[in-house]
UniProtKB/TrEMBL annotation:
Reported cofactor(s): Mg(2+)
Keywords for the protein's UniProt record, in alphabetical order: Cytoplasm, Magnesium, Metal-binding, Nucleotidyltransferase, RNA-binding, Transferase
Protein name per the record: Polyribonucleotide nucleotidyltransferase
Annotated gene: pnp
Organism the protein comes from: Anaerobutyricum hallii
Subcellular location: Cytoplasm
Length: 697
């Protein structure tokens, strides 16, 4: 295939796509250049479907290569290892708009690989990879109902910025990514500084307009370079099996089985239905036995969707805009720095907050030069017992990483600055029970936990999810507030929104259909605002409305001071001797950065104060007339030398030890004694003369 090149201007920078130059053996490949960012995107599919599965096996990879930013990977191996959290999150953002556009019964393995080869900080490799995955798949022979396009929107001084540069991202009040087909929005991901709902909606549609122009560009590439889509083995429930099952079980019986507010009851009802079908087909239709699970799933789905869409009846009997029963608690665990629990129906999350010195912030070795550390870390765990299952724990998967990142993004805008609260903060959300929307419950539980821990967040944050069931036309749909697991499984959308009373802090939207109309987006955001207000006002704030004014008994206390950077070497001392002596004396932990910020961390406030006093004595000149506390370090016939601070000794002459005559210095003080002294003078040679008797009453 001859090399073809296509270009367009996108947000003031040139986007170039080269087809046929590299990776010719992939089903589809595109070498993407956006400014100086280069990403190789490939789409490959297996020749045959994977046997024994009832899902589409899609893998999306975002490979970060450190050479792309002129770095050698850290660590001993000096080689890229498993995907970073950032790479996992980017893969998820690409996966979510792509997956719904593949055929629902496609069972061939598909891998979309995006290899980041060079990074221009002002041209997002994430956006470039999303566009590359769309191009590579669209020109391939893999069945795909695309293309899609993705755009980032920033918000600076009230103005929208399309695909903001690195510097613009640092000051933007919005980090919004929107993916679209030519007609509809198909994915939304956002972090925001309390952006009002109407402004967020405007930003989403702004991105959609940009996406439509990019899709026209991709359509031109597909027209010239696209391959004919290959045929594949279609998977469906045999018609005679379906007819027999529906007549035997009946829609009324299936409705009775699934419409209950207790998940375990529903699962038992479905298990019994499957048993009946297995008994029915065991002899005469043995070939149907492997198809029963998929057939019953489709029967449930059809039943649930029909009842919701046509009769406005939800499985647990709630109204369309009704939230499940809610409960909030704090201080469940002793000795931890903070704990909170949020329960929504059969979904229950407990979040634990841990505070530490800023030196324990997470260090990040990635492609983004602006992000080298992370002071707030949110981790989300989803053990199998939370859904009544058993399987070994293998560490967090992509879903857990994604849910943790969403909650983290929702809470970052309300966290205090490092100057206001000089702590590294970690929250861990443990899923104790799950029946839908655990990620949003973790946001609520984390807010409770942070406030209980004494973290002075600016405002409480709550999260809620809405769902969707659609019919045959764009205006035939129903939006559901607070979806449970069944409505998520069988519905078309999981639209998660978190925020304060005043605005949105995070959005994540997943769908299973080919996009959302503007009316659906507006209604979903409106519903989440109503629900969020209810959760904050009536559930969370009655439990704890403002952060506690101090950290807990077992949390470290941190005092912060600023010193002249030129004095840092004096604090540290030769080979760390001075700072280690302070630590040994007080038991505190001391962190100093290059700007002269000193963080002193400990549990004993008196020892923190002592360490701060020592450091202050090191960096500030000793003043005549002031009283200091020091240690006797040397005794001579004529007096005692007292160390006021490292490398700052003063002399108490024997005549200044007491109002009475002193025959021998040791009669008054000995080496190691802690004494309070007054500085009489600092002579021309810088010698410090002290008096003990001046402070004896």
């Amino acid at each position: 295939m001859m090399v073809k090149q296509f270009s367009m201007e996108l947000a003031g920078r040139t986007l170039t796509v080269e087809i046929g130059k590299v990776a010719a053996q992939a089903n589809g490949a595109a070498l993407m250049r956006y400014g100086d960012t280069v990403v190789l995107s490939t789409a490959t599919a297996s020749e045959k479907p994977r046997e024994g599965i009832d899902f589409f096996p899609l893998s999306v990879e975002f490979e970060e290569k450190m050479y792309a930013v002129g770095k050698i990977p850290g660590g001993f191996n000096k080689r890229e290892g498993k995907a970073s959290e950032h790479a996992v999150l980017t893969s998820r953002v690409i996966d979510r708009p792509m997956r719904p556009l593949f055929p629902k019964d496609y069972r061939n393995d598909v891998t979309l690989n995006n290899l980041v080869m060079a990074v221009d900080p002002n041209c997002s490799p994430e956006v470039t990879a999303m566009l590359g995955a769309s191009v590579a798949t669209s020109i391939s022979d893999i069945p795909f109902d695309g293309p899609i396009a993705g755009t980032r929107i920033g918000l600076i001084d009230g103005e929208f910025i399309v695909n903001p540069t690195a510097d613009q991202q640092l000051v933007s009040d919005l980090a919004l990514t929107v993916a679209s087909t030519a007609e509809k929005v198909i994915m939304i991901e956002a972090g925001a500084n309390e952006v009002p709902e109407d402004k967020m909606i405007e930003a989403i549609f702004k991105a959609h307009e940009v996406n439509k122009e990019v899709i026209k560009f991709i359509d031109r590439i597909v027209e010239e370079c696209g391959k004919e889509k290959h045929e594949y083995e279609h998977v469906d429930t045999p018609e005679d099996l379906w007819d027999d099952m529906v007549s035997f079980i009946t829609p009324e019986a299936m409705e009775e089985a699934v419409f209950t507010d207790v998940k375990q009851v529903r699962e038992e009802n479905i298990r019994q239905i499957k048993e009946k079908l297995e008994e029915r087909y065991a002899e005469e239709h043995e070939d149907w036995l492997p198809l029963i699970d998929d057939a019953v799933y489709k029967f449930q789905k059809k039943t649930v969707r029909k009842m919701i869409l046509k009769d406005h009846k939800r499985p647990d009997g709630r109204a369309i805009n009704e939230i499940r029963p809610l409960a909030a608690e704090i201080d469940l665990l002793p000795r931890v720095h903070g704990s909170g629990m949020f329960t929504r129906g059969q979904t229950q999350i407990m979040t634990i907050t841990t505070l530490a010195p800023l030196s324990e912030a997470q260090k990040i070795d990635g492609l983004d030069a602006n992000v080298t550390s992370k002071r707030y870390m949110h981790h989300y765990n989803f053990p199998s017992y939370s859904v009544g299952e058993t399987k070994p724990s293998r560490g967090p998967g992509r879903r857990e990483i994604g849910h943790g990142a969403l909650a983290e993004r929702a809470l970052v805008p309300v966290l205090p600055s490092e100057d206001e609260f000089p702590y590294a903060i970690r929250t861990v959300s443990e899923t104790l029970e799950s029946n839908g929307s655990t990620s949003q419950a973790s946001i609520c539980a984390s807010t409770l936990s942070l406030m209980a821990a004494g973290v002075p967040i600016k405002k409480p944050v709550a999260g809620i999810s809405t769902g969707l069931v659609t019919g045959d036309s764009d205006d035939d749909y129903i939006v559901l507030t607070d979806i449970q697991g069944l409505e998520d499984f069988f519905g078309d959308m999981d639209f998660k929104v978190a925020g304060t009373h005043d605005g949105i802090t995070a959005i994540q939207m997943d769908i299973k259909i080919h996009g959302l109309t503007p009316d659906i987006i507006r209604e979903a955001i409106s519903r989440t605002k109503e629900a969020r207000e209810h959760i904050l006002t009536n559930v969370m704030e009655p439990v704890i409305s403002t952060p506690r004014d101090h950290v807990g008994e077992y949390a470290p206390k941190i005092m912060q001071m600023h010193v002249d950077p030129d004095k840092i070497s004096e604090i540290i001392g030769k080979q760390g001797k001075t700072i280690n002596a302070i630590i040994d004396e007080t038991g505190v932990k001391i962190d100093i950065n290059d700007e002269g910020r000193v963080d002193i961390c400990g549990v004993d406030q008196a020892m923190i104060d002592r360490a701060m006093e020592i450091i202050r004595l090191i960096v500030e000149p000793v003043e005549a007339g002031k009283i200091y506390e020091g240690e006797v370090v040397r005794i001579m016939n004529f007096g005692a030398f007292v160390q006021l601070a490292p490398n700052k000794d003063g002399l108490i002459h024997i005549s200044k030890l007491s109002k009475e005559r002193v025959e021998k210095v040791e009669d008054v003080v000995n080496i190691g004694d802690k004494v309070k002294v007054k500085v009489l003078e600092i002579d021309k040679m810088g010698r410090i003369n002290l008096a003990l008797r001046e402070i004896i009453k």
